[in-house]
Amino acid sequence: MRHPRNLMRLSWKELQSLELREKAAYFNVNGNPYHCLIAQQFDRSMLDNLGRLATCIRRTAKSKSGMRFLGSLLDHKRAMLYFSQPSSRTFLSFYAACQILGLKPAEVRDTRTSSEMKGESPEDTVRTFSSYFDIIIMRTPQQGFAEKMAWVLSNTERPIPIINAGSGKDQHPTQALLDIYTLQRSFERLGGIDGKTVVFVGDLARGRTVRSLSSLLTNYEQVRQVFVAPPPLQVGKDVLAQLAQARVKYELSDNFEEAIRQADAIYMTRIQDEWDQTPGESSRIDTDKFAFKKHHLDAIRPHTVIMHPLPRRTEIETAVDADPRAVYWRQVRNGMWIRVALIASVFGLAEVVRNNYDLNLG
Ligand code: NCD
Question: Residues near ligand 1 with C-beta < 6 Å?
Answer without folding.
Answer: 89-90, 166, 172, 175, 208-209, 270, 309-310
